[in-house]
Amino acid sequence: MIKLISIEISKLVRRKKFLIGVVLLFILSIFITFLGINFQKKNGNTEGIIKHQKNYIKTLKEECKINSGNGEYSDIDSAYKIIIEDSQKEIEHLENMLDENIPNKDRLKMKVDYCEERKKRYSLSSSMVEHYNGEILKSQYYIDNNIPYDFKEGINALDQLIYNIIPKIGQLGLLIIVAVMTADIVAGENKPATIKFMLVKPIKRWKIIFSKFIAAVLSINLIILVLELLMFIVIGLIYGFGDMSLPNIVGTTYESIPPYLIRELKQIVIPIVGSSYLISNGMFLLQILILQFLVVTATIAFSFLFSTICNDSNTALVLPIIFIVATQWINIIKSAPDKGNPVPPSVLNKMLPFIFTSYCDESIIIGNKINELLGITFVNLNFSIIVLLGWISICYIISHIIFIKKDITA
């Protein structure tokens, strides 16, 4: 069996579609890495946030033409004034965080105090309260363990890998590229009659189909991992690798809002206050890689099914891509609800978590953010793993049965 798998790997990596997929993955990885670093330099660091807040205040003042000296405000102007004052407090807080004359530990304590004050300020918003709870948990961890905090929020390879490279590759074409690489693994051997030739040999059919599937799973996942590792090393050598032991906020659970309160609160689900907790960056990355492996393997199994069913490799390529594009497009639409007029989750919102393409951004799965985006409450890491394993098992079993019973020699 091992020899058969190695033969299938050797055949797969020489296929034209597979090589095209590798090139596309490489280009996509470089493109996303460049965009992520560029964004972090301009907007993602603390100085960028301060600049953005100042521009925001300037825009608000221009829009409502506030004259801070006359003391007369309309209701709208008064609301703008409150927003501006909050933004100015945020700027003041961030500037204090950048003041290196203040010891790092003291700045962390100042951040905890600021978050506590913000919690009281937004006490009616569970989302804001839980957000600041998470920041307090994180800051307290640094204080308790005497770890210096990077208040500049600079670039490092680990953050880029976790929050940019892996999730963005998934969102911007990974599954489509995987479908391209898998499309003709079975269907592509019909015309040259390779499978017919193999069946003449004393090799059981289940070994043939199983070896092809395992070859695809190992080859494609390994190439993705190698490319991500390459990006990680390049960024790390330039900007630093980051620290695997530092904390990350995850696990927020959500509860539904009664329908009659949805329009008033302008939310469909709210986080349960106190549900978030910390895990290390290393554990966070491990969970992301596990999910990535499963979603890629589910895509392979799905495309493999069509490659087994279809005699033509082009048909085996087009059909999975149509499904992937359509479901990802629906997911994007449903993950961006109208915040001004939210409505209870539709049947489609509740169905999307059962489709493997919903898990291409692993970071929002581990943090359970997907629940807030879709207006649901039941998705977590364990649920995601079960769904993906289900897709892998069902698609492969159907492929297996079809291949065993298919009259290939006819």
From TrEMBL:
Pfam family, any one: ABC2_membrane_2
Q: Which GO terms describe its molecular function?
A: ABC-type transporter activity
Q: Which GO CC terms are listed, alphabetically?
A: plasma membrane
Print the keywords alphabetically: Membrane, Transmembrane, Transmembrane helix
Q: Where are the transmembrane segments?
A: 18-37, 169-187, 208-241, 284-305, 317-336, 383-404
Q: What is this protein called?
A: ABC transporter permease subunit
Q: What's the source species for this entry?
A: Clostridium senegalense
